Amino acid sequence: MSINKNIRQLTKVRKEYSTSEILKGILSRDITFLSIAITLVESSRFDDKQKAHEIIDACLPYSGKSKRIGITGVPGVGKSTFIESFGQYLIKEKNKKVAVLAVDPSSNRNKGSILGDKTRMETLSNLEGAFIRPSPSMGSLGGVSKATRETIILCEAAGFDTILIETVGVGQSEVEVKSMVDFFLLLMLAGAGDELQGIKRGIMEMADLLVINKAEGENLKPARRARTEYKNALHLFPATTSGWIPKVETCSALEASNIDLVYNITLQYFNLIEKNGFFEKQRKGQALEWFRKALEHEIIQQFMQNESNKIRSKALEKLVIEGKRSPFSAVDELIKNAN
Amino acid sequence: MSINKNIRQLTKVRKEYSTSEILKGILSRDITFLSIAITLVESSRFDDKQKAHEIIDACLPYSGKSKRIGITGVPGVGKSTFIESFGQYLIKEKNKKVAVLAVDPSSNRNKGSILGDKTRMETLSNLEGAFIRPSPSMGSLGGVSKATRETIILCEAAGFDTILIETVGVGQSEVEVKSMVDFFLLLMLAGAGDELQGIKRGIMEMADLLVINKAEGENLKPARRARTEYKNALHLFPATTSGWIPKVETCSALEASNIDLVYNITLQYFNLIEKNGFFEKQRKGQALEWFRKALEHEIIQQFMQNESNKIRSKALEKLVIEGKRSPFSAVDELIKNAN
């Protein structure tokens, strides 16, 4: 098993397989068929979509049993190195099967922040038991996270028991990722001055675990100091709905130190939420939320795909911004004369 | 001018006035006509709505010049007392005209948390230059905040230069209020243990000013300690998009101490954002956001008002929660066969 380097080729051949062949391949844990199915999920073609939905619905009974872990942090914090270390630990020490996915809304792939530079996870990607899938390069954030969510189902059906979802800690993508994972890990750095520089407001509050990375050499002391500082800050926030009290730890992904500690914390967390029912509750809530959001998105799409609606909406937007129409009377007019 | 005690009576007579009569009344700063217009805005009747939209659109050129200030805090924090003190200061010392509105999504009015107990603002409500309007008791949060937003326009056209919008600091209503004000003030109390108890996550991050209320007598010391603690916590957050660094102060609404300080901070803030263009930018952004949200809301309403769509949606929701359908394939099916 290794990172799939032949997506284009798979795209060409995917039509040769029926949905039942692809399904059978996935359930027999064949990575090639998993990749074919993901490519279908990421496709914007109508017939591919239909096929993808059939496969996903058939995979559903075999899905849902993994631990879904979101990992975020600003570029430079060491996400790839952390996932490399953490993934290796899970596979080698804990006999897990690990899929690594990415949610990255940025169209500019040159930043290389997310799984772009595959070589950065070379050791992990060559391990038996690892599957690394770069972020789909298509479309809007909503589209990317829809594909990611469906990919989770496929990976679980293919036997992966741990799904790591990587995202950049600077935008809306965290909220999307939060809504598809069980556990949310925020990687940070100890730094002079404003410790949270670059991290969007609200991200810290979503974290179940803050890990100060690069706690090595001369940086060990500042990292420990940062840990205390964050612990105090987190203390000011009320308890999460999971009943879990967010933790702060240091680690060095480079030296693979404290990786076991991070793993043990995830264990504690999952033990807690499986016992108190939050695991089940959150999963159900997430599914319902995705259904409702996707439905609303589609309903609005249908409306806006109508050229006349679109043009009239744009014209009214302009009047609203200029203060010449109230938002609500503008909406009334638009809806009344909608196509 | 005083709090309007005759809404029911106004409802009866509102049909006797034409929109142009009501408009003329508002622009001549007649509170009776302002109240009639607000009652139209809060009405769910189709013809009232039409009339309200006409009036609001006609008021728009005369609106937008007030300072819109959101005030939130958990029940018991002293919101009413604070608004009473702050409002009196604004009117008596600064010669302002102050309208007090409320956004309160709770249907249970017995809590008396928001403007319910009118007597709590008796002094303010009897002042020339004050207008206090209780929260509309109808409908959903979205409906309440829509009415509040339109009421702001009406109050501004009627010559009010300061709009105070009160809300309870425990839910979604703060996000709504944040999207209709220029400045957001969070009232808090010094307390033992977890200082943020009861305040929803994320609310603190929205505040431009935190005020520790009840800094009086024996509570003075704990209040000052809390101020330091919050200052340190706020320091961890990155700068707001306004360029403003959120402040923390203590006050005693009861003894009317530090009320001038709070006022001076709002002045500093408005000076800054008028200079750096954020005032204009935020207002335009808010209008556009409201238009888009209201449009999306209406489009979805139209879809769900269809009985068959509604029934099928509920059935699919169930399958999604049970893990028998993927959210996205369920949506596809629903949209494909929509009415």
UniProtKB/TrEMBL annotation, chains A, B:
Protein EC: 3.6.5.-
GO cellular component, one term: cytoplasm
SMART domains associated with the record: AAA
InterPro entries noted in UniProt: AAA+_ATPase, GTPase_ArgK, P-loop_NTPase
GO MF annotation: an example: GTP binding
Enzyme class: hydrolase
Domain AAA+ ATPase stretches: 65-234
Lineage: superkingdom: Bacteria
UniProt keyword terms in alphabetical order: Hydrolase
The family this protein is said to belong to: Belongs to the SIMIBI class G3E GTPase family. ArgK/MeaB subfamily.
PANTHER family with a match to the protein in the record: METHYLMALONIC ACIDURIA TYPE A PROTEIN, MITOCHONDRIAL, METHYLMALONYL-COA MUTASE
Name of the protein in question: Methylmalonyl Co-A mutase-associated GTPase MeaB
Organism: Acidiluteibacter ferrifornacis
Gene transcribed to yield this protein: meaB
